[in-house]
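> forwarded from #structure-qc
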């Protein structure tokens, strides 16, 4: 990955980072609402979690940024790019593909082609992304990943693939930003056992609550 793809050019569409794009100038959204920007970030995280590697670069660029940061930087994007990225149909499709275990991450590289980048440059993105994610804000791994508190409730280890997938789902769907960050090593990895490898611990009541709090948009 080159240097350019790590920082944002806010003068350009945040999603495709090109001036031309497939779209008319009038397609540019100059003052997006906070909720739209949040949805964009969540969609990028989700789709990467489901192995849509064409959004890895976007997710890497968005890494430590909140919707507020982006708005302060006068973020803009093509309406077309946004609706492609946040399309529930496309997210569901990526999810289904991922759950079937057939995700190659290279199903649709339209955007990559549009940018004129040679194909095959995405091959290292998965490991790159998970390395970056692993460096995300440290948290106390001896505590419940969800509440980071000593509630007195019994701590359980994430020890099964099923539980690893539940953690990934929470990481992808939760509206709790700091929990999402703590789970980013899991959501960035394509390995359903990532949470097990990370030695994550949880309280059962916290897990139940986190699952209940998930907002599906
Ligand atoms: Zn665009
Ligand atoms: Zn807890």
């Amino acid at each position: 990955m080159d240097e350019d793809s790590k920082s944002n050019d806010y003068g350009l569409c945040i999603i495709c980072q090109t001036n031309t794009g497939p779209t008319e100038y009038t397609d540019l959204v100059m003052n997006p609402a906070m909720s739209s920007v949040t949805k964009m970030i969540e969609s990028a995280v989700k789709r990467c979690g489901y192995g849509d590697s064409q959004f890895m670069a976007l997710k890497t660029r968005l890494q430590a940024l909140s919707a507020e940061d982006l708005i302060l930087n006068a973020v803009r994007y093509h309406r077309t790019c946004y609706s492609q990225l946040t399309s529930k149909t496309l997210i569901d499709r990526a999810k289904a593909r991922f759950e079937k275990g057939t995700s190659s991450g290279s199903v649709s590289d339209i955007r990559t082609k549009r940018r004129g980048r040679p194909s095959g440059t995405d091959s290292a993105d998965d490991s790159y992304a998970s390395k970056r994610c692993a460096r995300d804000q440290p948290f106390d791994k001896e505590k419940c990943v969800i509440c980071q508190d000593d509630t007195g409730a019994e701590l359980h280890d994430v020890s099964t693939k099923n539980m690893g997938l539940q953690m990934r789902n929470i990481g992808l769907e939760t509206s709790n930003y700091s929990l999402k960050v703590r789970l980013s090593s899991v959501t960035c990895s394509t390995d359903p056992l990532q949470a097990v490898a990370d030695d994550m611990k949880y309280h059962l009541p916290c897990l139940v609550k986190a699952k209940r709090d998930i907002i599906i948009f």
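QC bot note: The radius of gyration is 17 Å. Residues 1-5, 103-136 have pLDDT under 50 and may be disordered.
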